[in-house]
Design goal:
The chain is α+β, with helices and mostly antiparallel strands. Helices cover about 30% and strands about 30% of the residues. The chain folds into three domains: about 90 residues, Rossmann fold; about 70 residues, ATP-grasp fold, A domain (Dna Ligase, domain 1); about 230 residues, D-amino Acid Aminotransferase, Chain A, domain 1, CATH 3.30.470. The chain has 14 helices and 26 strands. The strands form seven sheets. Strands 13, 16, 19, 21, 24 and 26 form a six-stranded antiparallel β-sheet that branches. Strands 3-2-1-4-5 form a five-stranded parallel β-sheet. It has a four-stranded antiparallel β-sheet with strand order 6-10-7-8, with helices on both faces. The longest helix is centred in the middle third of the chain and has 21 residues.
Length: about 425
C-alpha cells in the first residue's frame, strides 16, 4: 500500500513507525517530512497547507491513502481536494475541521447538541468584551480563547480583571491575525483533564465510531505541573483509575452526541476526533475538539494499538469503519518528551544528540541529521516511548532508558504519570479530588 503522510513531527514519526509495522508492505511517502521520516520511506517537498499542490502530487502519483497529521492542512481543505480525486483520505473535510479551526463554531456545536461543556460567551466587539470582563458572572480565572488556530498559544487563563482586559485587547488587536478578533470567554472548569481519541466515519447514510484508550497529557514544562504551558511534555494511557463505567459515561454524554450531531448537521467525518475532557465534580465536560491525533498522545496510542494501522485508517477513509472495541495490548504505555534548551519560549538548535541503545522506542520530533550525527532542530526534540504491564513498570522502563539519550541543556519531566499512579495506589477514582 502506498501512503502519503503529511507532517513532520513526533506524531507523524510515531504513525510512520506503526504503519511500517503493518502486515502488508507499505511504501511510505512523507511531506514535508523530516530526516527521521526519510529513513522510513521517501520524502517530497510539498507545502502541506496548499490543497492544490498536494492534490496535484496525488493526481500524478496516486497513493492508496492520504493520512493528514496536523490540523492546519485539514482546516485549509487538503482532504477535500484529494478526496475529490477519488483517493481515500484519513482526515476531515474543511467543514468538519472547523471544530478545531473555530472555537466559536465548536461551542455552538456543543451547545446545539446538548454536550456538557463550560458556560461561554462569544464576543466580536471590543466594548462588549470589556464590559463582560468587568461584570464577569463566574469565578476566576477567565478562560479566553482566540477563535482561530494560533499554534497552541490562543488560550489564556486570566487570573484577574487586569490580565483579562490586557489579553482580550491584544487578541482584538490581531495578536493572532483575524483568528483572534473573535474571542470565546469561558467559565473555568476544575477537575482532572484527559484526552479521548475517537475514530469517526460519518456521512448522511451512516455513523460509526471506535474509541481508543483514554490518555493524560502533561502540559507544563516543569515537574509538579509548574512553569509555562508547552505542546505537551509527556503522556500515558490508559488511566489506571478510570473504570469501565467512566468510559461508558463519556461515551454516552460526549462521544455519541458528537457523532449524532455531525450527521444531523450534515458534516462528513473520515478521521479522528480528539476530545479534550475535564472530569469535574459534576462529571465529564468537553473542553475542546481537535480534528487530528494529539501529540504526544499518539506516541502512547501507537504503543497500545494491536491492529494493523494502515488497514484501520483505510477502513475509516473509505467509509467502512465497523463499530467495535479496537484491539489494544493489555498494557500501559508512556511517552516522555525530551525538549531543547530554552523551550517553550524558544529552542536551542543544532546541538549534537547522543543516542545509545535504549530498550525503548525513540521517536524523532524535532531533529535533523548531518553527516551521521543527529542534531536538535525544534522545541520538542525526541520522545521516549514504551509499554509495560502497568504504569509503574512503564515509568521504570523510561527511567532506565534516560541515561542512554541526551544532549547539553536537555529538559525532561521525570514525573510523567506519577500523580495518576499515586492517585490509583491510594484507591481513588476519577470522582475523587484530583
Amino acid at each position: 500500500m502506498k501512503i502519503l503522510l503529511l507532517g513532520s513531527g513526533g506524531r507523524e514519526h510515531a504513525l510512520a513507525l506503526k504503519l511500517k509495522a503493518s502486515a502488508a508492505a507499505v511504501e511510505l511517502v512523507s511531506a514535508p517530512g523530516s530526516d527521521a521520516l526519510a529513513e522510513l520511506g521517501h520524502r517530497v517537498a510539498l507545502d502541506q497547507e496548499n490543497p492544490a499542490m498536494v492534490a496535484a502530487w496525488c493526481a500524478e502519483n496516486r497513493p492508496d491513502l492520504l493520512v493528514v497529521g496536523p490540523e492546519v492542512p485539514l482546516v485549509a481543505g487538503v482532504a477535500d481536494a484529494v478526496r475529490a480525486l477519488g483517493i481515500p483520505v484519513f482526515g476531515h473535510d474543511a467543514a468538519t475541521a472547523r471544530l478545531e479551526g473555530s472555537k466559536a463554531f465548536a461551542k455552538e456545536f456543543m451547545q446545539g447538541h446538548g454536550i456538557p461543556c463550560a458556560a461561554s460567551h462569544t464576543v466580536t466587539e471590543l466594548a462588549e468584551g470589556e464590559a463582560l470582563v468587568r461584570t464577569w458572572p463566574y469565578s476566576y480565572p477567565i478562560v479566553l480563547k482566540a477563535d482561530g488556530l494560533a499554534a497552541g498559544k490562543g488560550v489564556v487563563l486570566a487570573s484577574d480583571e487586569t490580565e483579562a482586559l490586557a489579553t482580550f485587547r491584544a487578541f482584538m488587536a490581531g495578536q493572532f491575525g483575524e483568528g483572534s478578533k473573535t474571542v470565546v470567554f469561558e467559565e473555568p472548569l476544575v477537575g482532572m483533564e484527559l484526552s479521548l481519541h475517537v475514530l469517526v466515519d460519518v456521512d448522511a447514510e451512516h455513523a460509526a465510531y471506535a474509541l481508543l484508550p483514554a490518555c493524560q497529557d502533561h502540559k507544563r514544562i516543569f515537574e509538579d505541573d509548574q512553569g509555562p504551558n508547552t505542546g505537551g511534555m509527556g503522556a500515558f494511557g490508559p488511566i489506571p483509575f478510570l473504570r469501565a463505567e467512566d468510559i461508558q459515561l463519556m461515551r454516552t454524554e460526549l462521544v455519541e452526541p458528537t457523532v449524532r450531531g455531525l450527521q444531523q448537521d450534515g458534516l462528513e467525518a473520515r478521521g479522528v476526533l480528539f476530545l479534550g475532557v475535564m472530569w469535574t465534580a459534576s462529571g465529564p465536560k468537553l473542553l475542546e475538539y481537535n480534528v487530528r491525533f494529539g501529540d504526544p498522545e499518539t506516541q502512547v496510542l501507537m504503543q497500545l494499538l494491536d491492529e494493523d494501522l494502515g488497514a484501520l485508517l483505510l477502513e475509516v477513509a473509505e467509509g467502512r469503519l465497523i463499530p467495535r472495541d479496537l484491539k489494544v495490548k493489555p498494557h500501559t504505555a508512556i511517552a516522555v518528551v525530551l525538549a531543547a534548551e530554552d523551550y517553550p519560549e524558544g529552542a536551542k538548535k543544532d546541538v549534537p544528540i547522543s543516542i545509545g541503545t535504549p530498550a525503548i522506542t525513540v521517536i524523532h520530533a524535532g531533529t535533523r541529521e548531518q553527516n551521521g550525527q543527529w542534531l536538535t532542530n525544534g522545541g520538542r526534540v525526541l520522545n521516549l516511548a514504551t509499554s509495560a504491564p502497568d504504569l509503574a513498570a512503564a515509568r521504570a522502563a523510561i527511567e532506565a532508558a534516560l541515561p542512554e539519550v541526551g544532549w547539553p541543556g536537555m529538559q525532561v519531566r521525570r514525573d510523567i504519570g506519577l500523580k495518576a499512579l499515586r492517585h490509583a495506589q491510594a484507591g481513588k477514582t476519577v470522582r475523587d479530588p484530583w
